[in-house]
Amino acid sequence: MNVLRGWTIKVLLILLVLCLLHSGQSLDRFNVVLASIDDQIEQKGDELEKRKSELEESEARQFQYQQEGLTLSERLTALGTDIEAMRAELAENEQKRLDAERKVAELEELVRTTQSNLTGASRTLYKRSRTSLVDLIFSSKGLSAVIRQMGFHRFGLSHMVSQLKEHSAQQAQAAAEYNVLSSDILALQSNAEELSGQMAVLEAEKAVYERLAAEETQRQQSLAGQIANITAEQEALIAEKMRATQESTSIGEYEDSATSLPFPPFSQAFAVVSIGYPHRVGLSQYGAYGRAKAGQDYRQILMAYYNADFVESYPAMDQISVVGYGSMSFEDQYLKGIAEMPTSWGDSGGYEALKAQAVIARSYAIAFTQNGALSICMTQDCQVYNHSKAFDPAAARWHQAVAETRGQVLTSGGVVISAYYASTAGGYTRLPTDFDVGWSYNPSFLKRIADVDGEGRAYEGPSYGNSPWYYKAWYDPAVDVHPWLTQEEMLDLLNAALLPESYNPYLSAPAYGGWTAGRVREELSSLGIVPIDGITGIVVLNSSEGYSATVRVVAPSGSRDVDGRRFNSVFKLRSRGHLALWSSLYDIVVR
What we know:
It is built from twelve helices and 13 strands. It is mainly alpha-helical. Among the domains are: 61-243, Helix Hairpins (Orthogonal Bundle), CATH 1.10.287; 250-257 and 280-469, no CATH class. Strands 3-7-8 form a three-stranded antiparallel sheet. Strand 4 (319-322) and strand 5 form a beta hairpin. The longest helix has 103 residues, at 143-245. The two termini are 33 Å apart.
């Protein structure tokens, strides 16, 4: 089963238990709608599995075609090299043949000249051989001169005969070389033509594989689009289920009680604990509560969380349009019905937190509606409005906080800000564009802070606000029974986190079709990464920006560091049952 499908099932089951923990009501309330969504998700998961399988098959075929194409390219390159060598040799032989042809012509001319000279000398000697001795003697200056002249002619004739033989032999040799070169050239031309023919065939084969690979690319693009559409549909269904089951991002009128970790049923036991929930942007409501209990007034609280100007009397709209209720008084009804922070805090040291909440609720509503130009919803998608709270005497302390801050807002550059807030920041607020928030914009009025006192104690923590989401292991008691992991389970998660992110498709929990722990170790070894062989100690090292940066493991073979963000994603992907990790800031408890 693929990663997304496994993760989807895990998220959905986790969200079901969160609903149970938060509301204390039976899940029967959601049975009909959730069963329908489950069926749709399962159907989309099957469809997604099929498309991903088709994509893998297409990628395998494309790889085969590309390999065939590479092999043909290598053969074409080799043939091209051979042909170039032949052409070079052919050009060299052509030059040699031209030289031989020129030499043959020169020798032919030399032979003709020698033959001509020899013929002339022979005629002269013949003529003289027919002259009488008396004539020769009387025609010369003496007998000795006659003898020398006759000897000279005979020597010259003999020399010319010798030259003629030599030149004729050279001519014959040059002609033979010419014939050999001509034969070699014909063979090279024939071989080059044959190789060119082979290249043409290979080029045609290569073109076929390139076309097939291009077709697979188009097929993959189509499948990727289908997968993206299916994934988007799945995410929409998951979001629908989340809206029905997830914990509130803000506290609401009534707060949950903090829960402690149950006792582990075995030793050595490991639990991964989320610190903060959910987006950690803007004012932390439990942080504001803790700051109020520590003696800070509401202005100090607001300035701690926002880079904004405090405006005493802003000309806000008199009426606000609330979806489902219509127009109502902004100050005297809508704000008094805001149910985002427990009224009870006003009598337990948190009254200044109520006043801070009144200012940011007012600011948010003005920014959202553009000071009355638009309507606002009554749910957590905007701000929670409870009609009965606006008139409930039990909410008197909240009504008082609204009245005492009447007209007060936060602005930035003269514009009222969208004063974001959430229940618990884990002691560190985050920016919208941080990796663990993932919003697309980052307004200047928001900032990261270490939400702690002078001694490093978080205002949300046990010393002050005591948020139930400050330090919590998220699990389903009905399914998981407890949040504890054995050493083998924790080792498997740590080793899986050593694999690159590209391995995520194989790292779902084994129950959802992911690799076994043994397969993970084998893959690490094949990559030259030594698996972690045991745990004698473990500590999480946090960034000063408020996320867990490193998980340091003390193993029998030595200390090993695992990237904290990578472990976070692998835990969500691979941990057993319904275990969840809702924050980029976390701790690992060992007992």
